């Protein structure tokens, strides 16, 4: 293998008598080298899989070999046409993935083995379920998986991981030796609510009362909110958001994964997918949350505040997002990874998935046993959570 740009995997086309087109799988290290329209036709409606989103990460240096996120996307061409693809990265750490394998890496280290580099199919810094095997049929999905496994060996990676895939990826993955891992997030589902009050009426008394009290306190303090659509946003709106976003990281003594240029690129290339929720007080902005949307879902991504106000976090990050979803007829609000505290805000546990292949046989078997126990524990945990809604629909 001379350079990753020159890696070619010859792959057999689907087994049909009429198909005689040449099929080749290539490693592509820059989204800029792939046709945006052809990629987006495979990616579907998910804004996180759009060419513009993934290209913006690369063009603004939010991902790259220098920070341990080296793009090695797989692209399946048939007669020169892009027919399937996989967003893929060589990783030299496990930051920004949200499917935690630090214990696996530590076990490798303690046995004198290298866990990094590893190969990861995901959307960087975005724990959002969505398609990962961008193909029109299971045969091409299987080809992508086999090509990724070959690349794992060719690049001397310890392992291959697919994070947060959804149907129909699972059918193709279940036919492989990859190990399945269960997880969960908290999502809000729209039960046909006509207003935020209708949503509150469906909650238990204690949780409904707490949200109403928090909103009333914010109102008395003079806190107001405005929803800013990406196409109507200004430089000042984004400067405020980024200041809040960066401050959140600074409070935890770390650096933001995403830079100001990245958000500027999104505003330019996919403004209709962006929403800012701006909190204001005394005629000035004090907090902000950043969301991405498609035709059915609102995705809560990042937030920050320049002033501590009790209840501001929950209102800016969750309740305003839920109200926006109700007003705009969206079916789901995804509040991001982790956080049992979201349950009290009307978000309920929702299963997520990942798939894993470890080259080392002994570690693969050990991880398989671990995942069996972990899956049972997660299932019991989700069953035991006390839901935020009344058992009977409101009258």
Walk me through this protein's architecture:
InterPro entries: Acyl_CoA_acyltransferase (IPR016181), FemAB-like (IPR007434). Pfam families: FemAB_like. This is GNAT family N-acetyltransferase. It comes from Thiobacillus denitrificans. The protein is α+β, with helices and mostly antiparallel strands. The chain folds into 2 domains: 4-176, 3-Layer(aba) Sandwich (Aminopeptidase); 187-348, Aminopeptidase. The protein has 11 helices and 16 strands. It has helices at 36-43, 51-59, 102-110, 138-154, 169-174, 196-201, 205-220, 235-251, 260-269, 312-327, 361-384; strands spanning 8-10, 23-28, 69-71, 73-78, 81-86, 88-91, 118-121, 134-135, 159-163, 179-189, 224-229, 274-281, 284-293, 297-305, 332-334, 348-358. The strands form 2 sheets. An 11-stranded mixed sheet has the order 3-6-7-9-16-10-15-14-13-12-11. A hairpin with a 2-residue loop joins β12 (274-281) and β13. It is globular and about 65 Å long. Mean pLDDT is 92; it is low at 1-20.
Layout: helices, strands, pairs:
Blueprint: E1 8-10, E2 23-28, H1 36-43, H2 51-59, E3 69-71, E4 73-78, E5 81-86, E6 88-91, H3 102-110, E7 118-121, E8 134-135, H4 138-154, E9 159-163, H5 169-174, E10 179-189, H6 196-201, H7 205-220, E11 224-229, H8 235-251, H9 260-269, E12 274-281, E13 284-293, E14 297-305, H10 312-327, E15 332-334, E16 348-358, H11 361-384
Parallel strand pairs: 7-9, 14-15
Antiparallel strand pairs: 1-2, 2-4, 3-6, 4-5, 5-8, 6-7, 9-16, 10-15, 10-16, 11-12, 12-13, 13-14
Helix pairs in contact: 2-9
């Amino acid at each position: 293998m001379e350079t990753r740009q020159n890696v070619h995997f010859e792959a057999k086309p689907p087994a049909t008598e009429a198909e005689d087109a040449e099929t080749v799988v290539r490693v592509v290290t820059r989204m800029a080298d792939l046709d945006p329209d052809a990629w987006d036709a495979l990616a579907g409606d998910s804004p996180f899989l759009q060419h513009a989103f993934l290209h913006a990460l690369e063009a603004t240096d939010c991902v790259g070999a220098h920070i341990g996120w080296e793009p090695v996307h797989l692209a399946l061409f048939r007669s020169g046409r892009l027919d399937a693809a996989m967003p893929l990265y060589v990783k030299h750490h496990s930051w920004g993935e949200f499917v935690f394998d630090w214990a696996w890496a530590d076990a490798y280290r303690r046995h004198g083995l290298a866990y990094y580099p590893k190969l990861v199919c995901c959307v960087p810094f975005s724990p959002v379920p969505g398609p990962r095997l961008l193909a029109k049929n299971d045969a091409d999905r299987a080809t992508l998986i086999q090509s990724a496994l070959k690349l794992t060996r060719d690049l001397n990676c310890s392992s291959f991981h697919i994070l947060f895939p959804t149907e129909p990826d699972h059918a193709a993955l279940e036919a492989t030796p990859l190990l399945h891992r269960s997880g969960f997030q908290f999502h809000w589902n729209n039960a046909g609510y006509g207003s935020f009050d209708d949503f509150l009426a469906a909650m238990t008394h204690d949780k409904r009362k707490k949200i109403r009290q928090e909103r009333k306190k914010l109102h008395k303090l003079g806190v107001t909110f405005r929803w800013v659509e990406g196409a109507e946003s200004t430089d000042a709106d984004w400067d405020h958001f980024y200041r809040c976003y960066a401050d959140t990281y600074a409070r935890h003594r770390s650096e933001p994964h995403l830079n100001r240029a990245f958000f500027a690129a999104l505003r330019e290339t996919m403004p209709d997918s962006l929403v800012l929720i701006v909190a204001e007080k005394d005629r000035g902005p004090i907090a902000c949350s950043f969301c991405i949307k498609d035709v059915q879902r609102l995705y809560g991504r990042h937030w920050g505040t320049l002033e501590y106000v009790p209840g501001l976090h929950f209102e800016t990050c969750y309740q305003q997002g839920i109200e926006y979803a109700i007003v705009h007829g969206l079916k789901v609000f995804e509040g991001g990874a982790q956080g049992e505290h979201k349950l009290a805000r009307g978000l309920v546990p929702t299963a997520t998935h990942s798939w894993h292949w470890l080259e080392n046989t002994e570690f693969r078997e050990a991880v398989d046993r671990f995942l069996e126990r972990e899956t049972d524990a997660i299932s019991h945990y989700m069953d035991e959570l006390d839901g935020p809604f009344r058992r009977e629909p409101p009258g």
